# Entry
Amino acid sequence: MKIVAAKKILKANDQLAAENRARLEAANVFGLNVVGSPGAGKTTLLEALFAALKGRLRPAVIEGDIAGSIDAERMEQIGVPVVQINTDGACHLDANMIAIAGQELDLNAVDLLVIENVGNLVCTAGFDLGEHLRIVVLSTSEGDDKAVKYPAIFQGSDALFVTKADLLPHLNFSVERITADMRRLAPNAPIFVVSAVRGDGIAEAADWLATKCQRRPN
Amino acid sequence: MHELSIVEALIEQVGQELDRAGQPGRAAKLELSIGLLSGVNCDSLRFAFDLLSPGTRVEGAEVVIDEPKPTCHCRSCNSSRQIDELTPHCPACGSDDILIEGGREMLLQSIEIEDQDD
# Structure
């Protein structure tokens, strides 16, 4: 006897993610999932974006790391409400972790909930967390071939942030190549080339994010 | 090794499907679709399955995996072709004005149960 299921293997995660999304929408909060390799500059990018958004949006962050609370401490230092998730070895966040961590935050005092995923270009790709938008962060020092080598994460992302643009003169990183590869995988995703330490491109990226937040469902 | 989480979810889902079908026993065979661009390594998935399945309702089940390919749409020559790996160029005309779609599926397609003739 054969049972035809034809269901997503991660259906349970997807259902929890949909509940997370509904909870965010009920509180009029925009959810952003930030993925990328360890060392891509995700936290530094967030610090720069939050500085540029000061007075416009009230952010909060859920930090996902295998261990430690270094990133959460950085967020506390700039006065952003933060919850740290330690996955104890797991290589990605899932929707259930976000449901639990989200209870620690006062969503009524938040406009933008950023979920900084575990640094990983592979495992984070398949797990919807309940966000409205996912951005992938790639630093110039990682190389311009990453979209071809890790297509799933780029294909499913709504924007690409190329970080550490200040290093471009020292590297063989082709912005044209990564742009062309991203266009093939995600033709509608904008690409921001930024340097968080020098400020290049940050204002434009912050404006884009603010616009996305204003168009949130409620 | 997100394959471990995926197999955990799979085992739970098979249990739910068996319950829904009123089948108290175990699955004999599972058919999965794991797209080539899904980011899931099928060898790791099988390894995780061997690790997690003992003592569950999928213990000993045969796992058949179909790997759907992504499609390359070319905006120059209007062709749509399935491709085995990511390509920067249209396999038909060589243009780089292409769009890659699909190949990201992660589906439990079907469950087979051994007929109980006792």
Notes: The helical segments of chain B are 3-20, 42-52. Residues 3-20 of chain B form the longest helix (18 residues). Chain B touches chain A at residues 1-2, 5-6, 9-10, 12-13, 17-18, 21, 23, 32, 37-40, 86, 88, 96, 98-100, 104, 106-113, 115 (CB under 8 Å).
